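Could you help me review a protein record that somebody else here produced? This is what I was given.
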Amino acid sequence: MACSAFHAVPKYSSINPARARIRVVIDELKDIYVPVRAGEYTQAECNGRNIYVIDGKEYSECSFCGASCPSRNYFKEPDSGLPLKCDMCEDEPPLSEPMCVQACVFGALTYVEREEEVEEEEEVRGEMEVGLEVLVNKHGLKKVKDAFARISKG
């Protein structure tokens, strides 16, 4: 409710859970609550139709998917059908934490910023480098150097 109210135009003018950028998969009997934030829009349905069993209850993979896709109405603006995406309530001035976290009186949601580990990017090799490597692997470095020397002379 806090999410839909925050994103209403004008702010806090209405509450419509269908406009929220977060959903909660709930199994009240087992006391299980799993938040799912709205992610990227996808034009096609995914092929994943896995079934997850949590404490004996079956859930489809779609239950935990944050994408807005043609196969369901989650994370779509109810009036226009446009996809919604969680913006972590970016605002001017920035919020200390998203509205859903601020409104969660039970402390089930938390917001923690973390630094992502950046892996070194692999050097992108051109066709020539790949081709030379294949030649070296096949014929040996000495033969490739000798051939290159002959070609470069003339």
In short: The chain has a mean pLDDT of 84. Residues 127-139 form the longest helix (13 residues).
